[in-house]
Design the sequence.
């Protein structure tokens, strides 16, 4: 229990005596209300994914290709070495990893699946990318870029020791370039009972194209909005991905009824002048002139695009794996700073800061009031919203001769922003009796 949670600190009998002492004592500094004691843990924002880390993975994938005949293609040594590199990083970070084998074209292929322990096993969020290249090159944009961004996001989950509501699973697919072989194999071999647990699949295939566009898959609306919101926050316009729907590993998931989404910076299509105007780059040139060719090396990457998209991967993983983004009702904000109420005098206010919430206050905002006074009928009490709007809690009444106002009021504050400084305003409108605001609280 935090020290500034609401509490009646004095008995009624002691109140009158204590009141004299209080007037002589400097009031304690206003306490910032801390809702943390009452709130469920709020989803933390995703961290920035360090571009240098993502690029270090690309350097490793390039070295692997260079050491293995210039590619990382299905059935070649460079593919298995790529899998080993990614798997070692994940194992060291605390993932439960598994290699899923399949056969294509007479060669053994591998999917690498990495589960982050924890989360609701009946709600699984997956993010994946294909790790194979074509045989003509190292495949650094296609698809070292997606593979490295997903890897670094998985490592960021581990660094943060993220405890999302959903279970997180990351995947690196084999033999995408031969026709989505690995991802199809994975989906087809998932029992129906496991498929139905997938709440979403996020795909990242080519996200660092040198002449980049910013394309968001036009698929599941929630996933799509999550990406679009991220780019809107950067003031980077996006377009719907149109360079061949179904041409990457989200397709088998979509076919199986799993909500899908993803990002893409363009392959062999040509950037228009309108696109060059809003995104920069070169109009009349392919988004990736090295698509599926030997020049798809570490030189074939647009750092800005890779950086933005990597951060967007993390944003989506954090956002979509969290159950509750806004704090649940029941958060209590309180102040125990005493404010004296002058006899038959001007109104006084007691401030209470509310922060960290989203949206408006509830329609049944609870206002707990503890005012010590020797004739409560003298008092007019209002709640002031952050914008100054007054809500009457209590009128004066010359016949109401009891002590104190210790009461709970319900206010429809749904027209008011939750965050800001709320005030309790108290005025003593008749002579002879005095008192003070002992404490008050808001329950959202
Ligand atoms: N590897 C994909 C392919 O060759 C690249 C690609 C083309 C793509 N169009 C796409 C990826 C659309 C995602 C979305 O087919
Ligand atoms: Zn590809």
Sequence:
């Amino acid at each position: 229990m935090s020290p500034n949670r609401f509490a009646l600190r004095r008995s009624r009998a002691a109140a009158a005596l204590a009141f004299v002492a209080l007037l002589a004592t400097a009031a304690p500094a206003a306490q910032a209300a801390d809702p943390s004691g009452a709130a469920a843990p709020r989803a933390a924002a995703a961290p920035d994914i360090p571009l240098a880390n993502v690029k270090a993975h690309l350097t490793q994938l390039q070295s692997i290709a260079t050491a293995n005949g210039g590619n990382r293609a299905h059935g070649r040594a460079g593919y298995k070495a790529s899998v080993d590199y990614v798997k070692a990083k994940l194992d060291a970070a605390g993932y439960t990893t598994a290699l899923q084998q399949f056969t294509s074209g007479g060669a053994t292929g591998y999917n690498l699946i990495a589960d982050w322990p924890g989360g609701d096993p009946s709600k699984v969020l997956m993010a994946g990318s294909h790790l194979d290249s074509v045989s003509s090159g190292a495949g650094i944009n296609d698809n070292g870029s997606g593979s490295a961004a997903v890897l670094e996001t998985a490592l960021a989950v581990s660094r943060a020791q993220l405890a999302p509501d959903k279970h997180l699973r990351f995947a690196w697919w084999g033999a995408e370039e031969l026709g989505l072989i690995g991802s199809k194999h994975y989906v087809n071999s998932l029992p129906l009972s496991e498929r139905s647990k997938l709440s979403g699949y996020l795909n990242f295939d080519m996200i660092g194209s040198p002449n980049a566009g910013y394309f968001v898959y036009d698929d599941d609306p929630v996933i799509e909005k999550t990406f679009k919101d991220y780019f809107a926050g950067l003031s980077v316009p996006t377009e719907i991905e149109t360079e061949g729907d179904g041409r990457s590993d989200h397709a088998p998931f979509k076919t199986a009824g799993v909500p899908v989404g993803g990002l893409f910076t363009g392959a062999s299509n040509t950037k228009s002048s309108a696109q060059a105007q809003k995104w920069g780059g070169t109009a009349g040139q392919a988004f990736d002139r090295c698509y599926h060719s030997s020049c798809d090396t570490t030189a074939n990457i647009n750092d800005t695009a890779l950086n933005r998209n990597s951060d967007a991967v993390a944003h989506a993983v954090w956002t979509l794996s969290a159950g509750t983004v806004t704090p649940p009702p029941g958060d209590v904000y309180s102040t125990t700073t005493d404010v004296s109420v002058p006899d038959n005098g001007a109104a006084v206010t007691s401030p209470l800061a509310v922060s960290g919430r989203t949206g408006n206050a509830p329609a049944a905002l609870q206002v707990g009031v503890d005012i010590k006074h020797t004739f409560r009928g003298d008092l007019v009490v209002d709640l002031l919203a952050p914008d100054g709007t007054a809500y009457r809690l209590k009128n004066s009444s010359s016949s109401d001769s009891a002590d104190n106002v210790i009461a709970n009021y319900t206010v429809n504050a749904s027209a008011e922003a939750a965050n800001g400084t709320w005030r309790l305003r108290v005025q003593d409108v008749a002579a002879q009796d005095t008192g003070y605001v002992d404490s008050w609280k808001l329950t959202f």
